[in-house]
Design brief:
Structural class: alpha+beta
Largest sheet: 5 strands, mixed
Mean pLDDT: 78
Radius of gyration: 23 Å
Strand order of the largest sheet: 5-6-9-8-7
Number of strands: 13
Number of helices: 15
Order of helices and strands: EEEEHHHHEEHHEEEHHHHHHEEEEHHH
Helix content: 25-40%
Length: 450
């Protein structure tokens, strides 16, 4: 008997809510069925905002010929376990890549010095960026964060912004920094993402700079916490269980190759894939038990752990994590298979929330805004992926997904799990580069002789 009145209008290929427009439409089918009382209440509270995301839900990706296509992954062995080990070795940051990141930070600091002399530059990478990968520019491996006091930043930019409006201040700073880096020809601009909670731009550091033998795609932001927090989480996972870091590298590479790691398209970002992997290792792991503890037991830098510590619940460990020796006795390939099986078959997206803060399987907390993904037609909907922000339990990081991207996510988990379940799985087949369905006209034009 529950109904909600919404107004709808067509926006491109999607539907968005408006305060005034076409006649009201009764949409009782908008509410998903089978929700628990708690989720049902949370869903009703989410009604005023769920339609706002429908516009992006119907976007269609179309295949286009690449000017410089990335070679498909290949390995020296057909044995799945050995191929995974080979890939892990390729993905791990090397001493050369670490040196390149330090030189990159120094060069950026030199370039922006005249604009922001008080700024500090931090660069971090979670994998070796020397090898070309699918979506390498769309999802860079290197994050650069420019840290500067907001008061000094406002003064340098000569802007009388509201001190509380830090987002606009950071956007202005990114524009100024980007102009400084690009105008001299040192760096190349690729794209901007100013609608995200943490505004950023993607730049290219050409090989001609002498920083590395190949061009380096980078994501640049100002006073962002997420890149540094992500790097700290990965480093701590590696300290507690080296196989945990290996699994994070594997999962991100798989997600990138299969086209489900591009946040601008409604997919999960690399940081969210880190959270999904850590959560799996906290609540599932393998038959021996969890490999990682809840977040309150992570040793994070003091400046990053404060909010996480304050938001962590005490006494939530029900099973002791496995020891390092137990975790290392299992191959990364076994953890990768278990990860795919967990999210393809065990995890219930309708009734569970991903929370590395708690590190256990629980429904979404009442303070977490429930994410509802609305289809492009604005009629049907489903409970989306709910990911609790480790630094703020009231923020749902899963609200970046759409009905279309959730469908792609389920499709890829099912595909990879099915391939891994074969008697002799092929890692090359699992990592086969994904491409959107070909648009016949675009394909014909691209293939026409010139």
């Amino acid at each position: 008997s529950w109904q909600v009145l919404v107004k709808k209008k067509t926006v491109g290929k999607g539907v968005a809510a408006t305060k005034k427009d076409l006649p009201l439409v009764r949409s009782p089918q908008l509410q998903p069925t089978g929700l628990t009382p708690t989720l049902g209440k949370a869903w009703q509270l989410a009604v005023p905002t769920i339609m706002e995301r429908a516009a992006s839900a119907g976007r269609k990706e179309v295949w286009q010929r690449s000017v410089r296509p990335v070679a498909a992954p290949s390995f020296s062995t057909d044995v799945f376990e050995a191929a995974v080990e080979e890939l892990v070795q390729q993905l791990r940051p090397t001493e050369a890549s670490d040196r390149a990141v330090r030189r990159l930070a120094a060069r950026i600091r030199q370039e922006i010095g005249p604009v922001l002399p008080e700024a500090e530059v931090f660069a971090c990478t979670g994998a070796d960026f020397g090898q070309g990968t699918a979506f390498g520019v769309a999802v860079p491996e290197v994050d650069v964060v420019i840290a500067i006091n907001p008061a000094a930043l406002s003064t340098r930019l000569r802007q009388n912004k509201d001190p509380l409006d830090t987002a606009k201040l950071h956007k202005s700073a990114i524009r100024a920094v980007t102009d400084s880096l690009v105008s001299g020809g040192a760096f190349k601009f690729r794209r901007s993402s100013f609608r995200s909670p943490e505004p950023k731009v993607t730049l290219m550091a050409p090989a001609a700079l002498g920083i590395h033998g190949v061009a380096i795609p980078i994501t640049l932001s100002v006073n962002s916490v997420t890149p540094l927090y992500n790097a700290s989480l990965i480093a701590e996972c590696g300290r507690m269980a080296p196989n945990a870091r290996s699994l994070i590298l594997l999962v991100k590479r798989w997600a990138k190759d299969r086209g489900i790691c591009h946040a601008a398209k409604g997919h999960l970002s690399p940081y969210l894939w880190t959270l999904l992997t850590i959560y799996f290792l906290q609540v599932a792991g393998l038959e021996g038990g969890a490999l990682l503890p809840p977040l309150e037991h992570f040793r994070l830098p003091h400046t990053l752990e404060g909010n996480a510590k304050r938001s962590s619940a005490k006494g939530v460990i029900e099973d002791s994590p496995r020891s390092d020796k137990e975790g290392e006795a299992t191959s990364p390939a076994a953890f990768f298979k278990a990860f795919l099986r967990f999210y393809a078959q065990d995890f219930d997206i309708r009734k569970e929330a991903i929370s590395i803060r708690l590190g256990r399987r629980v429904p979404p907390h009442v303070s977490l805004p429930l994410h509802i993904a609305v289809s492009a037609d604005g009629v049907s909907s489903e409970v989306g992926l709910n990911i609790e922000d480790p630094l703020d339990r009231r923020r749902n990081l899963g609200d970046c997904t759409t009905a279309w991207s959730l469908g792609r996510l389920r499709e890829e988990f099912a595909r990879a799990h099915s391939l891994c379940s074969q008697p002799e799985p092929s890692l090359e087949r699992i990592l086969e580069h994904w491409a959107p369905p070909a648009d016949e006209e675009a394909t014909a034009e691209a293939e026409a002789p010139r």
